[in-house]
Specification:
With 321 residues, the chain is α/β, with parallel strands linked by helices. The chain has a domain at 217-314. Helix content is 44%, strand content 16%. It has helices spanning 28-37, 58-64, 79-89, 108-117, 135-145, 169-175, 185-195, 216-236, 243-246, 254-269, 271-279, 281-301, 311-314; strands at 16-22, 46-51, 69-72, 94-98, 102-104, 122-129, 155-157, 164-168, 200-210. Strands 1, 2, 3, 4, 5, 6, 7, 8 and 9 form a 9-stranded mixed β-sheet that branches. The longest helix has 21 residues, at 216-236. The radius of gyration is 19 Å and the shape is globular. It starts with 15 loop residues before the first strand and ends in a 7-residue tail after the last helix.
């Protein structure tokens, strides 16, 4: 793959922005912002919260953090569109993203900027389990973030999570902004960027701690939503697993595949998580099955059949080397 623009850059000459999408954030936004503003870095940066709550949290936020800009959108907005609005509004040459339910390591920004200094235009970091004492929270962490645990080696990857992401402005100028999806918009954005030759670098030292959902209902529901997002990605790109759009009868095999890949990932990255996965496997498997149900349900919710081929729902798919 061609790696676009891998020359070393001078970060001191770049504007840095941090964007956080928000919807009914409660006090979590204050915890998140405190970790953002306490970054140990010599580089100046600005912070913008893009919120679409019925009642804006601007007064609460700016009473404690007056330096933070709050953009209030009038309609409920999915995270992808909120990130796009934020990226378009800020002045940053490098735009960093995290989420309300995340707490950043003090050196998070410095770790991201180091990889941009080396020439990478898209950088992602690792995710730490913020709910280790919760059964359902840990299950969500394992099913959603296994490939982003801090034990995974640094290197170029196919995708990273938008809760721990930084993007050079020229990527947006070339690729556009995030798709307007509730889930998996980061996966699709990464695929679009890779199709244009941009390398994505994973730095496990750029850490965030993610506060996962801790109820059974929320865990299962989120897996369904993730499945709905993943089918949209595969309808629009040639990412791995896109063949499932044409061969949906293979979907029952997906939980088996994900089981193998999860154990394999933790075998080489985190043996403690490997043991937890084994101990919690019935709950993990339930999450995998819920994800498949979302994959099946998604196109029907959108009025499209998983068996429908070519025509409108397969046009515009991207290929890359």
């Amino acid at each position: 793959m061609k790696r676009a623009g891998m020359e070393t850059i001078d970060i001191a000459k770049k504007n840095i922005s941090v964007v956080i999408p928000s919807y009914k954030p409660g006090s979590d936004i204050l915890t998140c912002l405190e970790s953002v503003l306490n970054q140990k870095t010599d580089y100046p940066f600005d912070v913008t919260v893009v919120d679409s709550s019925p009642a804006s949290p601007a007064e609460m936020i700016q009473a404690r953090f007056p330096e933070v800009t709050v953009v209030h959108l009038q309609q409920r907005t999915y995270p992808g569109k909120a990130r796009s609005a934020g990226a378009a509004a800020v002045k940053g040459d490098i735009v960093c993203f995290t989420d309300v339910d995340c707490v950043l390591d003090p050196y998070w920004l410095e770790q991201h900027l180091e990889e941009h200094r080396r020439g990478y235009k898209i950088v992602g970091g690792s995710v730490v389990n913020g709910t280790p004492d919760s059964l359902f929270g840990t299950a969500e962490y394992i099913t959603e973030f296994r490939e982003l645990n801090p034990g995974v080696k640094a290197g170029t990857v196919k995708g990273v999570a938008s809760c721990n992401l930084s993007v050079a402005r020229e990527v947006f100028d070339t690729v556009g902004y995030f798709p307007d999806f509730m889930k998996a918009e980061d996966t699709m954005f990464c695929e679009y960027a890779r199709s244009k030759g941009f390398a994505i670098f994973f730095n496990p030292d750029a850490k965030i701690t993610h506060m996962n959902r801790t109820s059974f209902k929320a865990y299962v529901r989120n897996q369904v939503y993730l499945g709905e997002g993943e089918v949209e990605v595969r309808r629009r790109t040639n990412i791995y697993g896109s063949f499932l759009i044409d061969y949906p009868f293979l979907l029952p095999l997906v939980p088996i595949y994900r089981t193998v890949m999860t154990f394999r990932c933790f075998l080489f990255s985190d043996r403690t998580l490997l043991l937890k996965t084994a101990a919690m496997y019935p709950l993990i498997l339930l999450g995998f099955v819920a994800h498949v149900w979302g994959f099946i349900r998604g196109p029907y919710k959108a009025g499209l059949s998983t068996e429908k081929k070519q025509s409108g729902n397969r046009q515009g798919r991207i290929d890359h080397d």
